[in-house]
Amino acid sequence: MRAIRAALAAITLVGSSVLMTATPATAAPCGTVRSPVIDGASAHWKISCKDRRTYVDGWVQDTRRDAMCARVTIETQDDYDWPQACGKGKRVNFHKSYFDPNRKGAVVKLKVVY
After folding, report:
1. Across the strands, what pairs with 69?
2. Whole-model pTM?
């Protein structure tokens, strides 16, 4: 029994170490197209680059009747934005443009928030 407890404790310690040392998200490059679906939200976006700017175009939709909103977070080197839709069936289109002379792209994520 002690051996099992020790093994479980070691597994827990290793697992928590891995979680604490997780690397940050990297920017998706120009030309990336995504259509994620999670419980309570769906979205579609395309990242494109032109004339030293990065563009993120798409939509976000709330798909569940609850007190939460569907949100797309867009993070670039110098800016942060979060278009969101609240209310089941509500869809919000977005067109965001950011100065990006090095064409690093953007970190774009779908989430559900209060």
Report:
1. 86, 113
2. 0.76
